[in-house]
Design goal:
Layout (H helix, E strand, L loop, with lengths): L4 H25 L5 H4 L5 H8 L20 H11 L8 H26 L6 H4 L1 H6 L6 H15 L3 H12 L9 H11 L2 H25 L1 H13 L7 H7 L7 H22 L6 H15 L8 H11 L5 H26 L8 H25 L9 H7 L5
Helix pairs in contact: 1-5, 3-5, 5-8, 8-9, 8-16, 9-11, 10-11, 10-14, 10-15, 11-12, 13-18, 14-15, 15-16, 15-18, 17-18
Length: 398
Amino acid sequence: MKVTSKAVIALAILASLLSFIKFNHCRNAGWSSPDMYTHACYSDITALYDQRNIADHSWPYSHGTNSLEYPPLTGVVTWASSYLVFNSSDSLIYFDVSALLLALLFIAVVIFIWRMKPEFWYLLPLSPAVIASLYINWDLWAVISAVVAIYLFDRGKYEWSALALGISISTKFFPVILILPIAAIFIRKGQRRDLFRYLTFSALTWLLINAPFAIFNGSGWWHFFDVNSKRGADWGSIWFFLDRIGINVSAINLLAILLLISGSAFYFTYLLGARQLPTLASSAFIALSIFTISSKVYSPQYVLWLTPLAILALIDKRDRVAFWIWQGAEVVYHFAIWQRLAAQEGSHFGLSEPSYTFLLALRIIALAYFCATLMRKSPASYPPQSSEFLSSATGGYA
């Protein structure tokens, strides 16, 4: 059955509204603690509105250690959005304005996924963990540019893709991992000169965006990197799990980097040795999964990074079982982290530490299982058996 753009937009709007309803309790109650954790409606948007002087329209990188702990384009978004709030003391209006912009971005992401993966696009607006997480943070600003970079790359528009990737990395750092499958694809094609041009163009885009911040607000710009380098074993990570079960891991920074490098090297080798040339759309998800598993923190909104790429990586309808197992673990974890925080804040309805630790491990296992399922069945692992496989491997353009 042919799906129209109106149906795609309608389902994306419905998902956006459902997410807004989830956060509406906190809108009415004022994001008080532990209430906002008990009702799973915490949002960085309102939490940082006062804490990072967004309410005063202050430049987000002019406060040194109190600067916004995100790359510069996210800071520009938070700063520019504050001018849409006529009463600067009203964080509720700021949340509403930000949510409206995020909803529009989500609709755009769904449209791109529909065009790239028409047989599975509906999974994005129907994913419960995605619906639960839309308005936690500003992450969708980076997600849309990363999806655009993938879309343009697989259509051979490398310069524009490199531009989009540089913009995305300047918004949130996670899209940098896309360089891994991009490099493998160029090498497989024997296009090393194009790889050099792509990396150079992306780096120059990132540099042109970041250089003014680094020059004029150096300490504020560096704050993002400083926070992440000094971060310990934080919520949601495999390192936090190990700490909670009594395994004292020292030199976490080094070990996290080594895990990322080893996982990336394994996947890079896999892509180089694949029988069929992979596409960026089909290979980006596992690269990003390696990035999140090795990270020192896993925030609930990271599912917004992963889910669009997971849908692009799906091969046939049977993969939806593994997809929903993973999504089920993600949505369970989404509520587990808030209920654990609620318990720490004195709520009578919070989650115990052992229960949270178990559900944390369950989420990581489910993600690893889903990745393994995709790698076993990937058309990059064996010659395609039908036009269905060919269409999936090419992002739906065959």
